[in-house]
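Re: DI6 structure - here you go.
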Amino acid sequence: MPNRLLITNVSIAKMDEPDDGYGLITHAALLIQDGKIEWLGSVSDIPAGLGDSEELDACGRLLTPALIDCHTHIVHGGNRAREFEMRLEGASYEEIARAGGGIISTVTATRETDEAALLQDALKRADSLIDEGVSLIEIKSGYGLDVETELKMLRVARTIERERSVRVVTSFLGAHAVPKGADADFYIDKVCIPALEAAHKEGLVDAVDGFCEGIAFDTVQMGRLFERARQLDIPVKLHAEQLSNIGGTKLAASYNALSVDHVEYADKTDIAAMAKAGSVAVLLPGAFYTLHETQKPLVEAFRSESVPMAVATDWNPGSSPMGSLLLAMNMSCTLFGLTPVEALAGTTRNAARALGLKDCGIVAPGKRADLAIWDVLEPAELSYRFGVNPLHRRIFGGRL
Ligand code: DI6
Ligand code: FE
């Protein structure tokens, strides 16, 4: 029997490029063959001769591309609930970081946690994303800051893909923070770049990321890392303009970054540079919310410059301990003013683009059959509610 699945009686939000809306078709059907979308259209046009296909009646539910979380740090040890309390007592994120807390405290915990325990914790986090219809998770290193632990994190990330029906894309984030007592320049040249080379050699690196910020690395230091990435032919992306504007966005754009992430403090000249470079803006409302930020990304400028906007959880133990991509979609609307169409494009089509992937993120013939079926009538419902999970079922690689 051919490996075919026919979904009938479904509404489909195709989220495909030429249409600025949802690309919605109702009373539709969709045919999957060998893990890919073969055909979609009106139920009245279902091709003949499919009698031997497995069939699924969606009872009028909504089908979308499966969701993509294009920015996470779900492999990490420990937690930072104490810092949450400290911030509520008045300490700022930067003050905690400068006092040796923040990212550095997670580095200590991650170094102390063995690979098996890191994997168990990360799988739980991956499972909660999968339960919300996520088929693809980007996972960063960056809590090792030494060769051994950076590689350990990336190996765990790759293992998740073998343990679960989910795709994983990795980013090497060795330039996340300056290790305690180290000199930032020395660290970049003598630890971070060698760690990148070692991780690349093991096939663990899909992209190179960094944290360009007053409390982390400046543009000159990031530039040296990006130069090495370019020599190794690895695409780059950057955490930039999250807490201040120090030029990270323009640096990233000059390397044709896949994405520039956070970008609350990016100005119009930064956004013009992103447009020219074709970089995606990854908006991370969980970090904005957690840190009580007030500077919002210039959404109107991203729109007018046609810079695609993606939305992600930034799931990490410090600035965004958020395990829900649906909540990130809601927050991107409520806090940043995205429309529900933009929020869904941000976790499907534009999230795929932020990862440099062309085989997923929209519902179209030839794309991977990574799909989500929701117990909702209209696509705006996915962003409208929060704390509610309307997933009916997820299809991964054509399999229910
Ligand atoms: N920006 C972030 O939001 C995360 N990393 C970064 O560079 C925060 C990571 C953390 O606080 O542990
Ligand atoms: Fe992050």
